[in-house]
Design goal:
Helices cover 76% and strands 0% of the residues. By secondary structure, the protein is mainly alpha-helical.
Amino acid sequence: MRSALRCLSAAVPLAGLAITSWLQPLAAAELDPTTVMVIVTQANVRCLTSTGTMTAKDALAIGNRFLEQEKISAGQRRAVNKREDVEELMRAYIADQGGCDALVRGLKQ
């Protein structure tokens, strides 16, 4: 598990490059880039945790670091989380990736 954490931690700076290929369904919903980044990051954290790949604390720390690097503030994250459709958008993103197991496999590559 520690090696997965190191691998994913090292991938955080590169996540912004890879993330654009994952955004097709969210982009179709005409969401602003901040909303998309928060939803994708939270979905990734959820999947890393639910698959047992990482502890919630470790996955959340990586997600927070990524959003901070993208200059997305805690206030912006809270605003996204207040959206009525945030859960639906996260579920749609996870489903589009083939579920949590497939999403995590993609993160590890």
